[in-house]
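@channel sequence for tomorrow's demo:
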Amino acid sequence: MGKARILAVDDQRYFRELTEGLLGDAGYDVQTATSGEEALHLLERDDFDIVLTDLVMPGIDGCELVRRIKERRPEQDVIMVTGVVDVKTAVDAMKQGAVDYILKPFDRDALVDSVDRILKQRRLRDEHARLMEENLEFMGVLSLLERAVGLFGTLAVDPLAERLVEGLCFETRAQTGVLWVADRFGGRTLRLVGARGLVRVDGEPETVEFDDFVSAWCPGLEAGRSIVAALPEDANAREALYVPIRAGDVTIGIARLADKLDDGAFSDSDRAMAEKVCEFGAIALQNAMRFRALERRSLRDPVTRAYTREFFEDAVRNEIQKSQRFGHRFSILRIEPEDLEKGSRPDPETDAWRADEERLETARLISGALRSTDLLAESDDGAFLVLLPQTDALGAGILAQRVRTAMTSSPDAGAGLTGRCATVTHPVDGSQLEALLRALDERVAASRSSLLGAHPDLRACPTPDSLMDRLLELATSEAVETEGQILRFVLEDVVRRPGDRGILILSPGSRWLPDVLETLYEIRGRETRTEIVLLGDVAGQEDASRLTCIAKSSLDVRRPFLVYYGEGPAYAMVGSAAPPATTARIFQTGDRDLVEHLAFELQRELGILISVRGGD
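structure tokens (generated this afternoon):
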């Protein structure tokens, strides 16, 4: 063990030399300073076991020096040297952190005994801290093992990912944790499945290729057990700890930890604990992936390969948790073959072959219209259910239209393969599974009583123009001012719902144009996610937010119309071509099926592009 280092501070040369000589003869390494200022400079550059300082000095006196030393180094031991008349002041200095005081004039024994006693106490304190650290490390390992066992308590990937992120943040004291996991064992596409703390989930990629992830964010991770690298696109250049989750040589996930408490850096101990947690996490995730693959194989219908109703409901509950955590919306689509309601489906007992053929063909057509991320299930009543992740009401409507088109365009459409569709969206139509299914039943019932069912010729109209002509035959007489009131209400509704995505197609003609322009001016600059498509000569409106103006279109301009479809109430209004007197003939409806059909017929006619997901 090396010599203990002492810093002696005194403005009088005699006492500096005396202290240096006495302690030097006792085997200590002594350095002196002539003032408090010089002592502080030395302490910035070097470490000392004990600081021995005179109380009365010009400039920074002993009390002030003790206070400043303790501010910078709370564990620093300081001995105060003072005269008899200044004992009370020395005691006050001890209250600020000095551990002992010596009276002048002092002899060798008093000085050396004080230093030896303090150094012995320091060695005992250091030994106690070391033993405590070892005990804490041992207890930490036991605690880690106990928490790691908890990872094996679930076989569902997403809840397991949440537990894993929570454990990693706990062990490393990180305030932010994000976890991406492979979509399948051995897959190179990673999906965001877990997040905790101060992370902005909408700023993180939902899916990322493993090679792109490593090359862009943490080069070298593939070869290492963990790596510290800068957070992506962080102006403050904060560092993050990246830890791979490996099952053998296969990387099945990557965790990113950041924002360590007290703004500290991730230590070697943090990295070791995170790596150990990820070792257990890799085993648990691999088991969950295997179970999921087995579960999916066993929970599929052997004919259609669609999932069972039980699996579908579990998937929806899982999607609810993800939606609440990440702020995504999702939808459920129900498809009913038309012969389901008519009771004309083949009897599975007497005509099993034909029943299976129709179920298989229906499932094939529906699957062909869906995305790879959508989950198709078959209900016990013969209807099909589809989980549409990260899809709002407008996107669900687009997918429903794709399914209808696929089924009606099939050569076998006449054999009962056409059907009705109904959709609901979380959390707009319900926040829990039971509420969503009730809302879906209500939508199905409303679809059965839709005008499209009562008047089949409406869906058969070849163009939106002929469809609106047909709707005018169902018009009623209303007060002339009603049209303007409805226009204002609908246009203002799109900004009353700034977070809801929708589409509003409006052909005002000369009759509605003044009310439309006035209302557009009033709502100019207000945020909305609804696309407003305005038909006709409306020069000067092209720069309005979310507004598309089409001066010329293939639609007949004889009569004005309005169609509004999205996450809010669906609505359509068609006016007559004849100028009104005191009353006007208008057709108006909140029939969601009819409005959806009309909106997408207009969208196709006008060539308007609408994405399934609002961010696409």
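heads up for whoever presents: The radius of gyration is 38 Å.
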